[in-house]
Amino acid sequence: MASEHYFTSTPATELKTRQIDVRLSGREYTLTTANGVFSPDHIDDGTAELLYNVPKPPTSGDLLDIGCGWGPVALTLALEAPDATVWAVDVNERALELVRRNAEKVGVSNVNAVKPEDVPADVRFATVWSNPPIRIGKDALHELLRLWLPRVADDGDAWLVVQKNLGADSLHRWLREEFPHLTVTREGVGKGYRVLRAVRP
Question: Among 13, 88, 145, 185, which is most buried by a count of CB atoms within 10 Å?
Fold first, then answer.
């Protein structure tokens, strides 16, 4: 379906899985991806830029990947913080199933791959890492961030990677205006991307 997007809840295209070799948290893995999810052939440049710039995650607590796709960010969080609980959130059922399969492959058991509504309302996140789905449109993206960023815990933070020509700088300004209680800074620039950090003091 030419009109189908990776943010479709239940992809209508026939499932076609594939194996790809990736490097996560300093180790090589062969993982499963499929059509109908974001960047099925490789770790995309934005996600790679995010993972290059983020520090080590908190070792405990709840950690969040918004728009997890087949799982490179969530799996990195899980590998680097085995005592934490990682929430891999996506609207795409196919992506969530791939995350579950890939978590088994890399040997982690601390990943919850769920739809947004399945995250308990009282959970607060020590850190959020995300390559958010910019192509859902500005209004939908803002709604998404309004849902999750208020749930960053005290002394927690959120890391977002956004392509410069898809509105990284305007998003930076919006974050500062929308969330005045967060300190928003640009922490990395590379390959046409901006890595933004929002800190809750």
Answer: 88
